[in-house]
Amino acid sequence: MRKCLKVTVQGKVQEIAYRAFVQKHAQALGIEGTIQNIEAGNVVIYACGPSDKLDSLIDHLYKGSSAARIEDVIIEPYLNEKDFRGVFRIIG
Predict the structure, then answer these.
(1) Among 3, 22, 67, 90, which one has the highest count of C-beta atoms within 10 angstroms of its own C-beta?
(2) What CATH number did the domain enclosing 58 receive?
C-alpha cells in the first residue's frame, strides 16, 4: 500500500551530510519526496512510497548520519497534493 508522510526531525540535523544521507536511503528504497531545513535546526521531510519502504526509511531517520544528533522524529500522515515526479530532492 502506498502512503505519504510528513516527518519532522529535531536535533542537530541541518548539515548537508544528513540531508544527503536521507536522500541516498530514500532513493535506494524508491521513495519520492523532499527534505528541507526549517527553523531551530530541524528538517522536514515529505516522503511517499510503499508502506514497508517508508518504515525502512524511518529506521534510517532515527539512526541519522555520523555527525547528526537526533532528538526526536515526529511522523504525521500527509495527503499528497504535490507531484514529486518520482524523485527525492534536497531543497535549499
Answers:
(1) 22
(2) 3.30.70.100
